[in-house]
Structure formats: C-alpha cells, structure tokens
Amino acid sequence: MMELVLTERKESVVLLTINRPEGLNALNRELIKTLSELLAELAGDDSIRALIITGAGDRAFVAGADIGEMAGMDRPEAEILARFGSRLMRQISQFPVPVIAAINGFALGGGFELALACDLRLASDGARFAFPETGLGITPGFGGTQRLARLAGAMPAFDLIMTGRRIKAEEARDLGLVMEVTAATDLLPRAWELAETIAGKAPAAVREAKRAIRMGLDLPLDEGLTLEEGGFGRCFETGDQKRAMSAFMNKEEIPPFEGK
Ligand code: COA
Fold first, then answer.
1. 70 lines ligand 1 (CB under 6 A)
2. What average pLDDT does the structure give for the chain?
3. Is there an atom of ligand 1 within 6 Å of 109 CB?
4. Is 258 inside any structural domain?
5. Do residue 109 and residue 41 come from a single domain?
C-alpha cells in the first residue's frame, strides 16, 4: 500500500509529505492517525532541529478534512473528529522544534488549519487558501476560528470564515499569514534552506525560544516574561552557550553547535 505520509531526512531536518494526491491530500481519519503517530515519534528525537510539512503533487497542500467521511456523521461523531483533528494541530504547534509549512497548492479548511498550526508558512505563487466550511453547513473544527483570529485578527477571520472566499498566496502574505511567496519550483528548496538556517542555531536556544513564543502567546505579558527568563537561564547550562560566547570573546569563529 502507498504510504500516506512520506518521510525524508537530511541531517537534522525532516520533511513530511502528505501523500494522498489523488484526493488532493484531504485529511481522512487514517491520514490524521498516521501523521499524529509520526509526530509523536519525531517529537522524542532530540537530534531533529526543524520539521517541514508539505503536500504531494502539484495541486494541493491539503484540500481539507475528508468530506466523504464527514457526510454521514452525527453530532457525537463530529465532536470526536474535531477533537482528533485538533489534537493533531496541537501536536504541530507544540512540536518541540520549529515547523515550516511549504504550501504548494490548495490549503482549504483543515488544510488551512494545518498550515496555521505550523510556526512558519511559505507558499508557492499558485497556493490558494479558503475556509469553505460555512458553505458546507459546518464551522471550521480543527482550530481555524481560533488560530486565524489570533494570527490575522478578528476581521480577516470573520471575512474568510463567513464568506468562504478563496485568497491567493499574495493576499495571505499581506494578511501576515504567509512569510514568503515563491515560484512553485523554489518552494521546497527555500523550505530546506530556511530549515537548515534554523538547524544551524543552538538547539537548546531554538527549543526554548519556540516554547516561550508559543506559550507566551496564551499568557499575560508578565507571566510570559517570567517564562522567558527561565528559558534564558536554562540556555546557560549548555556547553553550546559556553563555547559560542568564549569563541566570540576570543575573536574566534563560533564552532558548530553540538546540541549539548
Ligand atoms: N474531501 C474529500 N475528497 C476531496 C476533498 C475533500 N476535502 N477535496 C478534494 N477531494 C477529492 C475529490 O472528491 C476528487 O475525488 P474523485 O477524483 O474521486 O472525484 C479529487 O479529490 C480531486 O478533486 P476535484 O474536485 O475533482 O478537483 P477540482 O480541480 O475539480 O477541484 C477543489 C479542486 C479543491 C476546488 C475541490 O476538490 C474542492 O472544492 N474540494 C473540497 C474543498 C473543501 O471544501 N474542503 C474543506 C472541507 S471542510
């Protein structure tokens, strides 16, 4: 059977490719489960320094949750699905190292939500984003109402979710939802380059910084600042901090980080 998620590793960076191109990579339960299990396994691997997620084929990142599976659901089944999907999105946002979405086509509904759960979003110039849910009789259920409003503000969230209108990569960038728009052929090379830049920084510092940014977003400023102080302190327990700062003081080149 074809694997639903392909994994490729180059040194300390892992690329996950959602691989159901004939269904435009729509998230069925099997795919959500596979991704979730993979992320749980990868989260425990201390040698990973950045993760990239993309979609197979040249048409879609992820065209949403699987409508065929949802069509006949009742309320309890739908609530279970929302919890299941939301848990996957939390695994992404809480993944210990930065996660980059390389959005190569349609990012609709659950696919838009998956992208919003990532830390950094790159999009090809052909990428298209929408929340079609209200036109199908439902609301976004995998975090869309919450993450879109927090990332772009309430009005873009009202606009996109109430109208279902489809936006291009450039508009997503103007809304602050996409960091860079690239030509289709440049998307993955740029994602690897960005991941490798991050992977070249001190691993403990990157993990602490992600944790502080992520957790801080949900905290009052004073609590976020206290959290940051703790992470700053923990960095000073690493040899990487000692070696980098002593090299700087001795006017030497900063040695590659060892992750300890
Ligand atoms: N759930 C289930 N199947 C999906 C899907 C989804 N979210 N999105 C696409 N597919 C399937 C199609 O049913 C089709 O399957 P088939 O070949 O067995 O008929 C296949 O993927 C290709 O899609 P198709 O609709 O033929 O391509 P298109 O180029 O005409 O249209 C889209 C592309 C993305 C505009 C269209 O597929 C679409 O609107 N998909 C649903 C998007 C959506 O509403 N997602 C949010 C769900 S809450």
1. no
2. 98
3. yes
4. no
5. yes
Domain of residue 176 covers: 5-199
pTM above 0.90, yes or no: yes
Q: Would you state the pLDDT for residue 2?
A: 82
**149-176 confidence digits (pLDDT tens):** 999 999 999 999 999 999 999 999 999 9
Q: Which residue has the tokens 């992600």?
A: 210
- The set of long-range contacts for 240-244, using a CB threshold of 8 Å and a minimum separation of 24, is 240/202, 240/203, 240/204, 240/205, 241/202, 241/204, 241/205, 244/202
pLDDT of res. 92: 98
Q: Does residue 106 sit in the same domain as residue 235?
A: no
The structural domain count of the chain equals: 2
User: Which contiguous run of DSSP H or E holds residue 173?
Assistant: helix 169-174
Q: What is the CATH number of the domain that holds 110?
A: 3.90.226.10
Per-residue model confidence (pLDDT) at position 175: 98
| 222 Cα–ligand 1 center, Å | 46
Determine if ligand 1 sits within 6 Å of the CB of residue 31.
no
- Helix (H) or strand (E) holding 50, with range, is strand 50-55
**Ligand 1 mean position, distance from CA 120 (Å):** 26
Can you tell me the mean pLDDT for 57-80?
A: 97
